[in-house]
Amino acid sequence: MKSASVLRGIVLGLLGLQLMLAASAARAGEDTIKIGILHSLSGTMAISELVLKDTVLMLIADQNKKGGLLGRKLEPVIVDPASDWDVFAEKARELLAKDKVAVVFGCWTSASRKSVLPIFEQLNGLLFYPVQYEGEESSRNIFYTGAAPNQQAIPAVRYLMSKDGGEVRRWVLLGTDYVYPRTTNRILSAYLTANGVSPEDIMTIYTPFGHSDWQEIIKSIKIFGSEGKKTAVISTINGDANTYFYKELAAQKVDASVIPVMAFSIGERELFGVNTTPLIGHMAAWNYFQSIKSAENTAFIKMWADFNEQRDKTTNDPMEATFIGFRMWAQAVVQAGTTDVDAVRQAMYGQRIKAPSGFEVVMNTNHHLSKPVMIGKINSSGTFDVIWQSIHPVRADAWSRYIPDSAKRTADWTFPWVCGGCIEPTFKEW
Fold first, then answer.
1. How many CB atoms lie within 10 A of CB 25?
2. Global pTM?
3. HEC states along the chain?
4. Which of 187, 196, 291, 407 is 20 to 30 A off residue 62, Cα-Cα?
């Protein structure tokens, strides 16, 4: 009986040890908050997205130095969708269902965002999308920290039409062939028509992702611009096609004073490896440029340079948008006291930070920011000088007022609307 009692004690002790080890393993899993990073590390979009992966890693490292969030360290979970929109959806599902991440920072193209959107809605995940886009969307599961058309495309065209912008009267809408350029150009065409521009003064051209042969297209643009009316190019070219486009622009000596190019998808980083001397004077419209003078921007640039051990000191607009989204998400987690998606989403409304742009930016209930608008001109060092900016932050319109059906729609995820694009509130008073 004594030996049986001893044996029973040993068995119970082993069971207790197993339970302790299991509990310890469970606590270890709970000790970190997993952050998904969903950016192309290869393929045509890697030229733009790689740096956003590193920006998130920088922000995670910075937050961990401060003790993490809610007493837990942040742990990055990195995947590579490789510039393939179907793979974006696969990787999004993997991050949410398998890795159980608390939040995802990712996507660049609207094609990739459209691909993952139903996954985030189905699994109730949270995506922070950091790039300018065409609008016409407001998902309950996405926060859009880049520009909507009324924060970039419309002000850029309005500027070019003004005396300061050269009084442009003829337009080339040039873009990569996918949803963002096509929808943006639809909005711009409606805006230009409403402002008296004839359809014959608008030329629209689309090219595939990664397009490298721009010779004939630029020749046709030069011909179009030589017919007696001041002409500008509005570029929604994305990815590494930009490098080839600007090299050919320089080769054919397209002078910015004659036919200026206004880009919506290139910044300081996309001009790496391009001789910018022939490109001086061409423009881009964003909500942030590295050349901005503000204490917040000085700190942001230093943070990035320190993270890279001074090997890379160049920042751009989508990096700033990533910074804004990450900081707001962290503030919302602290406010909610949890990483639960529903609680964090509610805490996001009204979040504000002083951004590197020097402006205080605010998250609105349509899941878009109020941000400043800026226009920059390429200088001899390959960066941009800010030549115009809005006086105050501009509130994003999720739906364009220049498209009749969209103009009727409201995006507001708070009561009584609780919708991303309806024409009347979801809930009505009894």
1. 10
2. 0.91
3. CHHHHHHHHHHHHHHHHHHHHHHHHHHHHHCEEEEEEECCCCCCCHHHHHHHHHHHHHHHHHHHHCCCECCEEEEEEEECCCCCHHHHHHHHHHHHHHCCCCEEEECCCHHHHHHHHHHHHHHCCCEEECCCCCCCCCCCCEEECCCCHHHCHHHHHHHHHCCCCCCCCEEEEEEECCHHHHHHHHHHHHHHHHCCCCHHHEEEEEECCCCCCCHHHHHHHHHHCCCCCCEEEEEECCCCHHHHHHHHHHHCCCCCCCCCEEECCCCCHHHCCCCCHHHCCCEEEECCCCCCCCHHHHHHHHHHHHHCCCCCCCCCHHHHHHHHHHHHHHHHHHHHCCCCHHHHHHHHCCCEEECCCCCEEEECCCCEEEECCEEEEECCCCCEEEEEECCCCEECCCCCCCCHHHHCCEEECCCCCCEEEECCCCCCCC
4. 291
What distance in Å separates the CA atoms of residue 137 and residue 121, rounded to the nearest whole number?
Answer: 13
Per the structure block, which two tokens stand in for 148? 């909507």
Task: Give residue-wise pLDDT tens across range 60-73.
Answer: 999 999 999 999 99
Are 149 and 202 spatial neighbours (Cβ–Cβ below 8 Å)? no
Please state, as a whole number, how many other Cβ atoms lie within 10 Å of the Cβ of residue 118.
13
Q: pLDDT tens across 141-173, in order?
A: 999 999 999 999 999 999 999 999 999 999 999
Burial of residue 367, with CB atoms counted within 10 A of its CB: 0-12 exposed, 13-18 middle, 19 or more buried: buried
Packing angle, helices 179-194 and 153-161, rounded to 10: 40
